[in-house]
Amino acid sequence: MRTSLFRSSAAGVIAVGALLTVVLAGCSSSTAAPEDSAAPAADPESIVLALVPSQDQDGLVDTAAPLTDYLTEELGIEVTDVVSKDYQAAVEAMGAGQAQIGFLPSLQLWQANDMYDAKVVLQTERNGNITYPAQFMTNNPDKYCDDEPVERDGMLFCNGADALKGPAGLDSIDKVKGAKVAVLGPGSPAGYIYPILALQEAGLDTDADIQQIPVTANDASVLAVYNGDAEVGFSFWDARTIVAKDTPDVGQKVVVFAMTEEIPNDGVALSSDLSPELQDRITKALEDFSNTPEGSEILTSIYSITKLAPADPDSLDVVARAAQALGLQ
């Protein structure tokens, strides 16, 4: 377990999320062997997989059902899932023994390891990339674009953001002063931490200089801009594709005008209550699942994941430092 940047007041971070009220029979730290015993920990009778929606959570459990069914068959242990409305709640659920597998954003992966000794085993790849930028979106390109927007795959970008790699266009973000801005909760790297830090580094007081419009998920941020409820929104790149099916013109009405520094991808953490042998089996099962066409398609439908790869836990320190810079301790 690495030295904590949050140790002095970890509870302050967790305060942004309520504890998941998941009742899990026969699956707690009480299954572990006593420390003075050489007997291995008994496998639990069932396992809970915690999901944190990056889009509207309706239907997410149904979408994830093939994954939990696969894990149940491969492990010989019943695997169910629960959807948290809050990033931090999933971390607390793992710490309380209410969930044993967490699909978590990068900051929460770091926290689960740092505070509860969860093992970070896998990180996601999306189209071969292991990092991604947060994006600034607007419905008012005349104000924020210093050049003519260009189109990629039906989506408009300006200020060099069409390079699809951060950072880009950050010289333009000081224009956000005075605007209504769709913002996710403080636990979201792409929906809060990185763009808010970028605005502060550009000289804005993010409490006084912008009107924050709270949203619950990345697709909600896109729709807030699309519908005119906010002039600017934050999200991961490129959350516009999530809503394109229902709003085909989203890529024309919502223009990406800046992107932050790259953020480590989300991934999978496993509870320390699980034996090392079972952790290895779960890790292999998930990685194998992601390497099949069917598994990749299902993971894409859940989290836009194209592949799960071995994790580099040290890569998560950068997002922890960004959170610390915002006082999220």
Automatic annotation (TrEMBL):
Residues 1-32 form the signal peptide. SUPFAM superfamilies: Periplasmic binding protein-like II. InterPro entries: PhnD. PROSITE patterns: PROKAR_LIPOPROTEIN. Keywords: Signal. NCBIfam families: 3A0109s03R. Belongs to the phosphate/phosphite/phosphonate binding protein family. This is Phosphate/phosphite/phosphonate ABC transporter substrate-binding protein. It comes from Microbacterium algeriense. The gene is phnD.
